[in-house]
Amino acid sequence: MDETGGKGVTLSEVPHECAKTFTMLENNPDVMNELAHSIGVPKELSFHDVYSLYDSDMLAMVPRPVFALLNTIPMTEAWKQERDTEDADLKWYKGAGPAEPAIGFQQTIIHGCGLIGLLHCVCNGVPSELIVPGSELANFLRKAVPLGMDERARLLNETESMYQASEAVAQKGDTEALKPGEDSIHHFVALVKGLDGNLWELEGSRKGPLNRGSLRENEDALSERALELGIRRLVDIQRRAGGDLPFSCIALAPSV
Length: 256
Known about the structure:
Distance between the termini: 46 Å
Helix content: 25-40%
Strand order of the largest sheet: 3-8-4-5-6-7
Structural class: alpha+beta
Oligomer: single chain
Mean pLDDT: 89
Radius of gyration: 17 Å
Shape: globular
Low-confidence stretches: 1-7
Order of helices and strands: EEHEHEHHHHHHEEEHHE
Strand content: 15-25%
């Protein structure tokens, strides 16, 4: 089986029962910071708004280095065609264990994409080395790392503390949360600089982590090269189709 179901749920080679329906999170620094810090991301790291992908003055407002970008992007026809073409040639990811260059989480939870996007940002690259020992996130990651993609999805589905932490912040955004049964056209896409120096694109409804290219030691996830390999590439896909790509973007970086 190889398809994406409704409400952002991915169906891989091993079908899963969706045990929970989450309240979808807003891609908002206040929401994501409260959730991140409550599960074990140190206070020294925070998410910050990114107001522009092109204006140098606005980009300079973001603290550096940036370890990851968390984006929400609508599923336009142009992006869907690009994804379908790329995914057609890919096999489902089979990696597991501490040697993985990027740890990904498959989404089988309805409206769980915000939590999964956050996990992709904080469980990879430098942030993964800063997680508070003994925290909920540290304990969850210890169990998740040895597992394959399907088993990780099941673990997240069954970890009640993660569900409770996500629900505790779900109503704190600036927009009204989706009601049960409502769908969202937006997907959470994380772009993370891995410990291997590559830019990784991670999304719960893809077949696995996607290596978008190497970054130099002095290039972070908001560098010109990372932007061109990552979020600007998605914007350009839509522009070539004759339109703009509305999106939101927050950056995981040192706190100020």
